[in-house]
Design brief:
- Pfam families: FAA_hydrolase.
- This protein is an alpha+beta fold.
- Helices cover about 15% and strands about 30% of the residues.
- It folds into two domains: about 1-50, no CATH class; about 75-285, Fumarylacetoacetate hydrolase, domain 2.
- The protein is built from five helices and 18 strands.
- The chain is globular.
- The mean pLDDT is about 95.
Amino acid sequence: MKLIRYGELNREKPAIVIDGAFYDTSALGEDYNERFFETDGLSRLKAFVELNKEKLERIPENSRLGSPVARPSKIVCTGLNYADHAEEMEKPIPTEPIIFMKSTTALMGPNDDIIIPRNSEKTDWEVELAFVIGKKARYVEEAEAMDYVAGYCLHNDVSEREYQFERGGTWDKGKGCDTFAPIGPYLVTKDEIEDVNAMRLWLKLNGETMQDSTTANFIFKIPHLVSYMSQFITLLPGDIISTGSPAGVGYGLTPPVYLKSGDVLEMGIDGLGTSKQRVKRYEETL
């Protein structure tokens, strides 16, 4: 299944994709949130759609898409999970996963504007594969880890490099600014993805390809990430976990290139759709 959510920000409704068309599933009476995943909502949704397929209403054309998952308890990210990205960042290849948090207030729809924070000069892009936790995960064995994955999403891990590297402390303040986590368009259930370790991901800036790689190049694969993170953090249903970005970010170019007002980012991952974000400065939103 491909799950979407649509409508005004913070007032999104649930929907589903059938043969490329979008249909409202509000009659199920549930949003795609922690409780939905915790109580096997995917099975209920599948049964509901099969029973009501002819009755579902198509959503209005050009509807805004929100994150396909309602605000999760947390967004946990993986740093430097591609060797070529670690190299361009001039960092050693990790011997254990590097994990950090993005604030849930960074969550946004796949085609919403990215807002460069006030006083920022080094806002950057990072296309990533994200996955969604389907049930509570704590001290999970790697052999069982995929049982805890509900599905996959496209994610742009937007990053402010000065805040991340030059302002002291952890990476979090360069990662969690408002609009820094565009997710979607879809949550694609794992049964629809033949091989999660062979998915092409790419990103273009103003039409020019900046990133083009494959998840075959992961340093740490998803089962290891689930198991590893669950040793330190209880992962709850609906939590979004991002797996890291390949080479081609602005910070790694010579000279570095950062986002400016008017820029357009387009990106995609095989089977997970595409997204497009326009860039504005904070001052333009006032």
